[in-house]
């Protein structure tokens, strides 16, 4: 044994070749500080060995190396800049020292080789991947750039155009695509990986392969003439500007760094990368995106734990109500392998539900993601029916009829009389109290809410709402079924609007008050989209939701929280609803919707909407961007805080992920609690107090005021 650590070991094979094997104590290999230290110690041990002809780098696990240990970043990035710079410099130099070993090196890549794992492979002279491999540099998804030499080596291996596309999008490549783009030298079957890599290493040692020139190319300036460089980097800058926009600094800085480093050797280029990494590590965007990653891990980990505790198998699902929502839920169950019964009271609705599933599959076929077999299998797994009797063998029944408590109660009651005693019954409702609906059931312990978001196949969140009588066994089984559907479950306790809609409607109320105070709804939309980063501004979102749905839900929220969410006199949403301006569903709301001469959809601010609003609003006023953001976001933030304090949601991380997955909260802001923390709790309280005179939704809780005074954090 040449070297043995806790995360990796090096031993001498036959014929003078060495094998460096990553085998961390956990389930996957990752570059934590211990592993980096051990890699350096192993490199030192190898450097002076005259009996070593070459080194094969591989993993003893089912995956190569998943990247750096993100959990170490939070504390590290809060350190002063010079400390962060010192860390990244020292770490990247470990990879340099490995790259400089006096004999050829090769990486045998299986499974994921991401981030630092990809950079380890790039530090080798050659790379062989098996058919399971996925290789990439996804740091941009954390608001960062590669820090262990990725921006230096990848452009010199596959060219700057390909490398920038890899790094600025963060998308990984399967083995064959990596081969076509030049990132690996061969792709083989998994059982042939080690032998193929060792054979190539032996060819390199025998000088049948010119490994020295490969290494020299990685250490030299980029081989680009002036015109090629201009074209390459201007194209990349344009692509990043179009796709990433102004809120994500990481892809912009990557392009700038590779461009500036193009004329430098490895050491000079690496200095620029180290500096860029530190600069990004200190941005709010990186803090937010790393926070999202960690929160996502927390939410998924909690879901897996609950699902593992379930002893009930969901082998047959039923959906009651076959409209677009019901059809979407049925599709989601079927496409993930669980047969589903789709029940409605009329044949036209069933046809609509089946068409919805077929439409989703058809779009998948157009994009090449679904083949004819998959389409047929999925549709055959959906059984349309008009009869309640077909539900008798269902393990899970999801009621998705019209959002009317009396109708839902009737359907749930009839369902309970039909299904088996151990079947679980859920209601897909967006606002109606689960405890109220449970009153119609004899066994409320097997009942809970299961709130899907539209369109079901695209929205990752499912809110699972626990009623006061819902058992843990019921929740665990529904969590397991949700995850089997490919969705992210977040369990919340019952209240009007649950979590997502409860925090959304104060945001809408803030918008309505602002418009009545004289703000132009198109300008508000522009600020909330372009400056805050929402995918849709509030007026546009209300048009998408539908004014009938929004008006009804606002009434439910007003009944549930009359002290804060009372109906607003002359609310623009109600004005639109009363004039049957329902939004996109009938082509007219705050905006008018249509198509141009080429058949492309159009959206124009509606004069009719202005006329309705102007009858009741103050004269036109110009509001600063910061005031528009404050007047909409403070009510949402305050309500989210109340949900956490009232134990509606279990943690700030879960609340942030729910808004991210359910509403499209801007990822670069990390969620509503991360937004508050980025501002500072004391600054948030100060800002909210500035607008407290506008009503109860602007008034902070005693809890957050105390947390601010004590210097506490929601993520401690």
UniProtKB/TrEMBL annotation:
It is an enzyme of class 4 (lyase). InterPro entries: 3-OHacyl-CoA_DH_CS, 3-OHacyl-CoA_DH_NAD-bd, 3HC_DH_C, 6-PGluconate_DH-like_C_sf, ClpP/crotonase-like_dom_sf, Enoyl-CoA_hyd/isom_CS, Enoyl-CoA_hydra/iso, FA_oxidation_alpha_subunit. It catalyses: a (3S)-3-hydroxyacyl-CoA + NAD(+) = a 3-oxoacyl-CoA + NADH + H(+). Pfam families: 3HCDH, 3HCDH_N, ECH_1. GO terms for molecular function: 3-hydroxybutyryl-CoA epimerase activity; delta(3)-delta(2)-enoyl-CoA isomerase activity; enoyl-CoA hydratase activity; long-chain (3S)-3-hydroxyacyl-CoA dehydrogenase (NAD+) activity; NAD+ binding. GO terms for biological process: fatty acid beta-oxidation. Its EC number is 4.2.1.17. Keywords: Fatty acid metabolism, Isomerase, Lipid degradation, Lipid metabolism, Lyase, Multifunctional enzyme, NAD, Oxidoreductase. Residues 318-495 form the 3-hydroxyacyl-CoA dehydrogenase NAD binding domain. SUPFAM superfamilies: 6-phosphogluconate dehydrogenase C-terminal domain-like, ClpP/crotonase, NAD(P)-binding Rossmann-fold domains. In the N-terminal section; belongs to the enoyl-CoA hydratase/isomerase family. PANTHER family: TRIFUNCTIONAL ENZYME SUBUNIT ALPHA (PTHR43612), TRIFUNCTIONAL ENZYME SUBUNIT ALPHA, MITOCHONDRIAL (PTHR43612:SF3). This is enoyl-CoA hydratase. The lineage of its organism: Bacteria, Pseudomonadati, Pseudomonadota, Gammaproteobacteria, Alteromonadales.
